[in-house]
Amino acid sequence: MKLCILAAGLGNRMGNYTRHIPKGLLPLGDKPILSYIIEYVPEDVEIVIAVGYKGSLIKQFCLAAYPNRKFVFVDVVDYTGLQSGPGYSLLQCKPHLQEPFYLSTSDDIMNETGLPSLDHNWISVQPTDLPELYSTANLEANNNIVAFLNKDNEGYKYAFTGLAGIKDYDIYWQQLEKTVNYAGEFVDAWLHPEVYPTFKGHFLNWTNVGIIDNYMQARKSYKNLGMPKITGNQTYIVGDKVVKLFVNSRDVYDRVRRAQHVDHLPKGIRHEFPYVFTYPRIPGVTVYETDEDQIHDFINWSFQNRFNADHGCAKIDPDAVHEFYYHKTMQRVEEFLSRKPPEYCQETIINGQTVAPIYDQLHNDYLWKRLEVVFETRNWHGDYQLENVIRSPINPKYTLIDWRDSFAGSEIGDMYYDLAKLYGSLTLPYYQLRSTANYSIDFDGRRAIFTAPLPMGKAIKHFAEECARKAFHFDHIRLLTAIIQLNMAAVHEYPLDDFLFFFSRLALYEVQDGF
Prior knowledge:
This protein has helices at 33-38, 55-65, 86-93, 169-180, 212-219, 249-259, 292-305, 318-337, 358-362, 365-371, 415-427, 457-469, 474-489, 496-512, and strands at residues 2-7, 27-28, 31-32, 46-51, 71-75, 101-105, 108-110, 122-127, 135-139, 145-150, 158-166, 200-203, 206-208, 234-238, 241-245, 270-273, 276-280, 285-286, 348-350, 353-355, 376-377, 389-391, 398-400, 413-414, 440-443, 447-451. It is an alpha+beta fold.
């Protein structure tokens, strides 16, 4: 018995979601789609995966996340050619599937605790009123399949939902080779159900995530690990480990290297593959999920253990500061505006306040001169906000996750950046931005109106008092926070990107008004 997963395609129906990673690695809750399929079967079942588009990411994720499972990866080289298609991909796997096997697409998830056995041939089905969109089957007594059509207006009542059990594999291969001629659809092997000794339909609870609307709807049923981004970089939790996947191998290398020199990061980091690293899952919850007293305690801990003045002889190149703040911000703004109409560049009335055009706001020499005053340190984190801190019931009490790879290529960074990241997560609770129920944004080309989660008033007051006690410039932190949140707009999905853009522009206006 084996499981075969077809994961070679481009995922064109997913739009920009698959720009950087294959469809099977898109997250649903704390795991990728592919994990739900892998976990259909026990650990001792061999899994054959057809890979093509971004196949190295799938390989490295599987090997890092499931080191005790046996995988066979079949490289489908011509996954975009005239012959390409699920049928072609499956035929490339044929040498490894000379026994009964389960067959699954990479965009259909069965919400079941166990699969039907392989003592007969079967496919998963559900009723449909749209036979032209699906492969469909005609079922008679005992759910026996007596007819099958592929995406036909004259199709049948029951749609194939992406999972099959193939007992008589020799017959299946004969039919597939005869009907698709090494191309087309793997379902074509069922066009003549009468050739199989048994062929049944099983009604399995099913979620399709193969098109954008279905995927976005499915995500609402899962607790997401963070705000939805469009960078392709992902964090997964698989069993007792955290799996970090990046589309740029340099990002992985730099993060792992920095972890050796930054305090309070996870222990047990393993970097065995270029695009992936892992570490043991840390027991506890994020500081965002605790209460007000514990947030107060974390602020105290931060000023005692992170925001202190003893950082030796750390020096950062002024060019790196200019690159990290000015050039990165301008690049991110251009990236954001490139996917928006021209009205986003113009003067805008934001929540009743007239705000200058975005480039006028940014073409302010005092703003960038102010940010060139840095607090140099090797022990900076880079995304120091409440969602990236685990509070554990065991020692150490606090562990920092999701640290940044570099400060414009430098291991030395600016402590003000961490202060601004923390302040931003108090003024705009980021965990609430995972759901559009907690914020709103409406822009008509001239006026933008948004609602935002309530800031953490008591925590902000305490943070400001600690900044004053340590002689950190609070206006500097406010200014940098607005710049950081403006940068965030470019890497998040709509409508969160719009919300962050207008929220940060108003915040930037308010802090610049005090210059």
